[in-house]
């Protein structure tokens, strides 16, 4: 960590505290009023003149520039109930919060831990008694910091916390390259990427100008303080039901970016707004306005925000995702699953669809073993004689489906050299579950004195000891009695804003439940360190790194059409490390060989979630499945250390031609290429693969590739000829 101090004389008076940490240029300022400001957080160099850009329409009022600094650049936004926010703002913006703007600088300290450098910054307010400690954890070799804030009530009166940021930064647009004489409007230089998400349509990526979202720069240098914000928000327990909890802001005029992810499994919020000629970014967990969250702090009480990782880099989304990929690996629980990447067979998709029996499972086990699978998972339905949706919760095996017990099947799975698994949905109880009528109401989410219903299920509250006792016994039983080593942990309801039980607000109850669930999960892994738990929430609706720092694998989708799944597969590494992204490959009973190949290419660069009626497809098509799995076993050791590569940009649902790859150590890229309509002949540019080097391109799946490609090293293009409407191939690109 490189540190130095300086002093700004114009346009403001402030003592600077400057850091260069892993390429992140950080500049704090301490004003003459002893207020701490975060002036800079970027890969670009700091220019103090950009802090208080004087607009053409600046009001000729004495002290306006000083007021601009006074109400801006706070390191932390924190709002208590009942305190005035005197500076001019419009709407519900998370700026000029009180006591946020009242905080005075107390101390800054530097530490080292096993990950890298750590900064601890303390601010205090004498009026409210608020003490705020900000922690920035850095990671050696990565231009990223994990941040969180802890507010403590050191006063003599109760305080109600309505909002506190995890990261707040003013002036996200202020930089541009040295030598550019004219000020470039934000309309022309600023962009943001939003990763939309939804059931069966996960990981839809869109890029916007600020102006596209209603945040136009009215005139260059004009004073801006509108009521408009760009908001991306999640409220509820599905953290990714509308958006992946991450963001990207690019500045083309400075070739810089600011990107982040919110490592939380519930409600979160981020917004971009304008004030005093600058744009700001505020990132947080739950809020009162958006999430019905508030927290009462008695004297001595503290609250810690959800963590947010914030990185900097060039204006390059692929580079940003690569940095996030490496960060995600650094914060993840070490586990064998993400080192070895075993192949999973699951009997659900385009196969048994939740209707398992002993008779149906045995031939599938034989086929999965023959294909080379290493886990075999019995999906939904094993615990009920018939329709089970509204009666789940006790998780006892169905003797009708498994007359000799589930253990007969799991023992057979192990005899074939595979590890057995089962499907569970422990966070819910069906409204017709017998145990749900026995447990007290306090074991469930309650609002307005009533149990919360969603899709004929109740939401269990993991703060209650009876709930912890129940779910722990279920885990113990399936591990002990059924011999499972893999659990597909699904979660198919959205209980909304939270619960009123033992909570200061609905959102407070939800957040504390989520933290209790994570603590329970930590205990399960301590007890069973080699147990694999798949994170599933109706597919990818809880795709976040509170869950994935613990669980080793993520269900990416319930998408049932392999052609549509190609988009999700191509974009999966945006939200999840490649080795954690489970992708279905489910050949149809009566499909074609090209359909099998397309299915396999969907999964080969991530984690294979094999399914389909492997015991009932033709030998030729089965051989293609086995060949794909064999190919995967040859390349998976590189996937676990690789970063994504998109030679044609990220995939869109309407794209006819797609290409996505993994850049692995040793100057190798594995590249999937898909056609789903459009022209049979198209090109994939490889100029960014290994610039300045001669390349060698080969098709590695299937081996009988056909005459479908030609690589031209002069133009650095992969020329594709896919004569079938739906085709895919897997290529290897390496330096000669």
How is this structure best described in words?
- The chain is α+β, with helices and mostly antiparallel strands and 736 residues long.
- Helices cover 21% and strands 32% of the residues.
- It contains 14 helices and 42 strands.
- Strands 6, 7, 8, 9, 12, 13, 15, 16, 20 and 21 form a ten-stranded antiparallel β-sheet that branches. Strands 22-23-24-30-31-32-33-34 form an eight-stranded parallel β-barrel, surrounded by four helices.
- β17 (268-275) and β18 form a beta hairpin.
- The chain is globular and about 80 Å long.
- The protein starts with a strand and ends with a strand.
- Residues 57-62 have low confidence and may be disordered.
Short description:
The chain has 736 residues and is of the alpha+beta class.
What's the arrangement of secondary structure elements?
Elements: E1 2-8, E2 14-21, E3 24-31, E4 36-42, H1 64-70, E5 78-80, E6 104-112, E7 117-124, E8 130-139, E9 142-153, E10 159-164, E11 167-170, H2 186-189, E12 190-196, E13 204-209, E14 229-234, E15 246-251, E16 256-262, E17 268-275, E18 278-284, H3 288-291, E19 295-297, E20 302-304, E21 308-313, H4 317-331, H5 337-340, E22 344-346, H6 348-352, H7 358-371, E23 375-378, H8 406-415, E24 419-424, E25 428-430, H9 434-438, E26 446-447, E27 450-451, E28 453-454, E29 457-459, H10 465-480, E30 486-489, H11 506-527, E31 532-535, E32 553-555, H12 562-575, E33 581-585, H13 593-603, E34 607-610, H14 619-639, E35 643-645, E36 657-664, E37 668-676, E38 681-685, E39 695-701, E40 709-712, E41 717-721, E42 726-735
Helix pairs in contact: 7-8, 12-13, 13-14
């Amino acid at each position: 960590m490189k540190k130095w101090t300086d002093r700004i004389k114009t346009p403001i008076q402030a003592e600077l505290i400057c850091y260069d940490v892993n390429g992140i240029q950080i500049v704090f300022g301490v004003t003459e009023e002893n207020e701490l400001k975060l002036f800079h957080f970027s890969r670009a160099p700091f220019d103090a003149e950009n802090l208080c850009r004087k607009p053409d329409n600046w009001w000729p009022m004495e002290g306006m520039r000083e007021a601009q600094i006074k109400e801006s650049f706070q390191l932390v936004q924190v709002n208590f109930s009942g305190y005035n926010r005197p500076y001019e703002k419009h709407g519900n913006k998370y700026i000029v919060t009180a006591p946020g703007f009242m905080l005075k600088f107390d101390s800054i300290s530097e530490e080292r831990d096993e990950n890298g450098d750590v900064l601890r910054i303390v601010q205090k307010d004498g009026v409210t008694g608020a003490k705020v400690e900000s922690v920035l954890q850095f990671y050696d070799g990565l231009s990223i910091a994990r941040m969180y804030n802890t507010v403590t009530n050191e006063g003599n009166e109760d305080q109600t916390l309505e909002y506190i940021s995890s990261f707040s930064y003013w002036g996200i647009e202020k930089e541009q390259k040295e030598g550019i004489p004219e000020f470039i409007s934000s309309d022309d230089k600023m962009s943001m990427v939003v990763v939309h998400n939804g059931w069966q349509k996960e990981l839809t990526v869109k890029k916007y100008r600020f102006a596209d979202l209603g945040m136009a720069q009215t005139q260059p240098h004009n004073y801006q303080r509108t009521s408009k914000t760009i908001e991306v928000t999640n409220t509820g327990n599905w953290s990714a039901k509308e958006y992946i909890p991450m963001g990207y802001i690019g500045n083309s005029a400075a070739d810089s970016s600011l990107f982040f992810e919110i490592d939380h499994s519930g409600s979160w919020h981020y917004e971009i707004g304008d004030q005093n000629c600058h744009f700001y970014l505020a990132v947080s967990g739950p809020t009162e306005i958006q999430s019905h969250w508030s927290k009462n702090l008695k004297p001595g009480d503290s609250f810690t925000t959800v963590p947010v990782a914030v990185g900097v880099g060039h204006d390059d989304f692929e580079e940003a995702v690569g940095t996030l990929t490496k960060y995600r690996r650094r914060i993840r629980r070490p586990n064998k699953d993400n080192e070895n990447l075993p192949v999973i067979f699951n009997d659900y998709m385009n196969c048994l669809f939740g209707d398992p029996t002993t008779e149906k499972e045995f031939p599938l086990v034989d086929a999965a073993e023959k294909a080379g699978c290493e886990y075999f998972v019995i999906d939904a339905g094993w615990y009920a004689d018939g329709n089970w949706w509204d009666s789940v919760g006790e998780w006892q095996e169905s003797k009708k489906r498994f007359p000799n017990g589930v253990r007969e099947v799991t023992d057979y799975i192990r005899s074939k050299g595979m590890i057995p698994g089962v499907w569970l949905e422990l966070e819910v109880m069906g409204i017709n579950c017998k145990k749900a009528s026995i447990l007290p109401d306090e074991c469930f989410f309650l609002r307005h004195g009533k149990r919360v219903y969603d899709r004929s299920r109740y939401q269990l509250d993991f703060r209650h000891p009876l709930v912890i006792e129940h779910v722990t016994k279920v885990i113990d039983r399936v591990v002990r009695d059924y011999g499972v080593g893999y659990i597909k942990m699904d979660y198919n309801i959205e209980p909304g804003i939270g619960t009123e039980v033992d909570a200061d607000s609905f959102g407070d109850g939800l957040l504390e439940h989520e933290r209790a669930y994570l603590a329970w999960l930590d205990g399960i892994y301590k007890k069973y360190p080699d147990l694999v738990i798949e994170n599933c929430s109706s597919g990818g609706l809880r795709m976040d790194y509170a869950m994935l720092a613990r669980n080793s694998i993520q269900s990416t989708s319930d998408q049932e059409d392999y052609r549509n799944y190609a988009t999700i597969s191509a974009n999966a590494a945006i939200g999840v490390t490649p080795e954690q992204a489970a992708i279905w490959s489910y050949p149809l009973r009566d499909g074609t060989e090209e359909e099998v190949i397309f299915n396999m290419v969907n999964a080969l660069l991530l984690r294979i979630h094999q399914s389909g009626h492997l015991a009932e497809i033709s030998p030729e098509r089965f051989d293609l499945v086995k060949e794909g799995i064999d190919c995967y076993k040859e390349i998976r050791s590189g996937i676990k250390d690789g970063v994504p590569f998109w030679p044609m940009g990220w995939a869109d649902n309407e794209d006819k031609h797609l290409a996505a790859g993994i850049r692995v150590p040793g100057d190798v890229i594995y590249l999937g290429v898909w056609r789903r309509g459009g022209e049979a002949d198209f090109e994939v540019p490889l100029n960014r693969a290994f610039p300045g080097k001669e390349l060698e391109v080969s098709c590695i799946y299937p081996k009988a590739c056909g005459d479908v490609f030609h690589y031209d090293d002069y133009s650095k293009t992969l020329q594709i000829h896919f004569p079938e409407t739906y085709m895919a191939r897997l290529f290897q690109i390496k330096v000669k």
